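Hi, here's the filled form for the chain we discussed.

Project: internal
Contact: R.S.
Residues: 112
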Amino acid sequence: MYIFFTIIIVMAAILLILLVLIQNSKGGGLAAGFASGNQVMGAPKTADFLEKASWTLAGIIVVLSVFAVGFSRANQDAVRGDSAITEQVEAAAEALPQVAQPAADFSAEDAE
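And the returned structure, exactly as it came back:
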C-alpha cells in the first residue's frame, strides 16, 4: 500500500508541476490565450480553475503523504515484531549452560 501511495503522490506532483508551469504570475499563461472578454470560460475563469486545481493537488499530496507515513510505520511495527522473536531466541540461547572454553592464555608462571 505504501508503494501505491508513493506512485499516486509522484503522479500528483507531476500534474502540479505542469499546472504551475501553465500559469503565469502576471495573469497570463494559459489564460492569456482566452483574452476575449465575452467568453463564458474566459481568462478569469481559467485562472481560477488552474489556481483551485493547484491547491487541490497540493492538498492531495499532503494527505497522501500522511497516509504513506502511517503505512510505513505499520510496516516498521511488523518488522519490529519479527525482531522481538529474534530477541527471544537470543535470550533463550544465552540462558543455555555455557560450555567451558579451554584457556588459551598461559602465563610464564604456569609454564614453570
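Let me know if anything looks off before we file it.
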